């Protein structure tokens, strides 16, 4: 069974940093396309970053480009997101996500709150 579990969220002041992790199991992590998405209450789901776990190719939404960094550790089957220079508008639930076959798999999410 495919599982994704996020961790690392919390409360941080504007300008601060967080590092999120997503532990993956039940599928071949090495050859997957992984995403970080986020959702603020009242807003839709926003895809903020993607990575090809085989090639390492990455992409970012304009809203986070230059501040967030996606990475992975294929030996640990773990996806990461480094969040720097956080803003209040980054407050959201952050999810990792992958598509395996015809199934969209998303973890339970981790809450990040940016507030002074």
Q: Which descriptors would you attach to this protein?
A:
mainly beta, 4-stranded antiparallel β-sheet, 7-stranded mixed β-sheet, 116 residues
Model description:
The chain starts with a strand and ends with a strand. Strands 2, 4, 5, 6, 9, 10 and 11 form a 7-stranded mixed sheet that branches. A hairpin with a 2-residue loop joins strand 9 (92-100) and strand 10. By secondary structure, it is mainly β. It has strands spanning 3-7, 10-12, 18-25, 33-39, 45-52, 58-60, 68-73, 78-83, 92-100, 103-106, 110-114.
SSE diagram, text form:
Layout: E1 3-7, E2 10-12, E3 18-25, E4 33-39, E5 45-52, E6 58-60, E7 68-73, E8 78-83, E9 92-100, E10 103-106, E11 110-114
Parallel strand pairs: 2-11
Antiparallel strand pairs: 1-3, 3-8, 4-5, 4-9, 5-6, 7-8, 9-10, 9-11
């Amino acid at each position: 069974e495919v599982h994704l579990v996020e961790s690392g969220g919390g409360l941080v002041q504007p300008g601060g940093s967080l590092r999120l992790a997503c532990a993956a199991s039940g599928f071949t992590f090495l050859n997957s396309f992984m995403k970080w998405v986020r959702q603020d209450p009242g807003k839709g789901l926003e895809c903020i970053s993607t990575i090809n776990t085989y090639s390492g190719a990455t992409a970012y939404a304009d809203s986070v480009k230059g501040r967030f960094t996606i990475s992975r550790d294929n030996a640990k089957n773990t996806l990461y997101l480094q969040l720097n220079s956080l803003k209040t508008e980054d407050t959201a639930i952050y999810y990792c996500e992958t598509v395996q076959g015809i199934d969209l798999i998303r973890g339970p999410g981790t809450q990040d709150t940016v507030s002074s």
